[in-house]
Amino acid sequence: MATGTRYAGKVVVVTGGGRGIGAGIVRAFVQSGAQVVFCDKDDPPPQWPEETSAQGFRQLLELNLLGTYTLTKLALPHLRKSRGNVINISSLVGAIGQVQAVPYVATKGAVTAMTKALALDESQYGVRVNCISPGNIWTPLWEELAAFTPDPAATILEGTLAQPLGRMGQPADVAAAAVFLASEANFCTGIELFVTGGAELGYGRKAIPGTPVEPPTIPS
Ligand SMILES: NC(=O)c1ccc[n+]([C@@H]2O[C@H](COP(=O)([O-])OP(=O)(O)OC[C@H]3O[C@@H](n4cnc5c(N)ncnc54)[C@H](O)[C@@H]3O)[C@@H](O)[C@H]2O)c1
Which GO terms of type biological process are on file (predicted)? Predict the structure, then answer.
């Protein structure tokens, strides 16, 4: 039920809107007064990111990059007419990397790069193209991936402590950024908006256990 008018009269298409971040985005746009169409698919197979076979990589490219590209290409003729905008969901790790996740990181880095290239091409038609890079957002996917680890509770605590804000994000946090980009960020195109609770800030322990450590010689 719409409660606001921030994006009234607009039609929003959300992919993966059945749960997690996508469901949060559906909710927020409905509350902003938009008409929302969303799709999803049954039984998403959770994939542990260590699976780095070429076939797994290809499937992830198909899902994260080519799926995004194909839908955008289909939507563009209409978006040009309506002066609409595109918001891709990338990931913080596409910018900063992540251990044991080469395919995922590579596909998300590509989503961010594609966002910038498309923003350049579409600006002449008045179509803005931006992406959101979430950090740790508590969703069913996060919970499923944690369940693959030897100590899920410890994994979830680590994920929580990764943010200076001391919590994981909620789908509503990402959704608020999406509504902002769509409805108010009229001079933003080609941006990557981090919704991360500050996870990328500051130094931390980055060396993987087993890395030869070479402390500097401290002058006496
Ligand atoms: N949760 C996080 O911490 C986090 C962090 C950074 C980026 N992201 C990105 O945010 C997006 C959503 O993640 P989430 O955590 O909400 O995941 P999720 O698995 O909880 O929800 C994703 C939804 O997308 C649907 N889906 C999957 N493939 C689809 C397809 N081909 N067509 C239509 N729907 C499809 C699934 O069925 C599921 O309902 C993903 O692109 C993810 O990479 C998530």
Answer: steroid catabolic process
What is the chain's alpha carbon radius of gyration, rounded to the nearest angstrom? 19
CA of 89 to the centre of ligand 1 (A): 9
* 84 within domain boundaries: yes
pLDDT (average), residues 193-218: 95
Judge whether residue 167 has pLDDT over 90. Answer: yes
Domain of residue 83 covers 60-195
Taking phi first (over 0 means left), then psi (-120 to 50 degrees means alpha), and beta for anything else, what does residue 45 get?
beta
Which 3 state secondary structure label does DSSP give 135? coil
State if residue 97 touches ligand 1 by the CB under 6 angstroms criterion: no
| Ligand 1 atom closest to Cα of residue 136 | 3
So what's the pLDDT on residue 45? Answer: 57
Tokens of 40: 């999803």
Q: In the structure, how many helices (H) and strands (E) does the chain have? A: 8, 5
Centre of ligand 1 to C-alpha 220, Å, is: 54
Q: What is the pLDDT of residue 49?
A: 54
Is residue 217 assigned to a domain?
A: no
Domain assignment present for 79: yes
CATH number at residue 167: 3.40.50.720
CB-ligand 1 contact for 137 (6 Å cutoff): yes
In the chain, the N- to C-terminal Cα span, in Å, equals 69
Return the H-helix or E-strand segment holding 180: helix 171-183
User: What pLDDT is stored for residue 119 in this prediction?
Assistant: 98
Residue 142 pLDDT > 70: yes
Residue for token pair 């996508």: 22
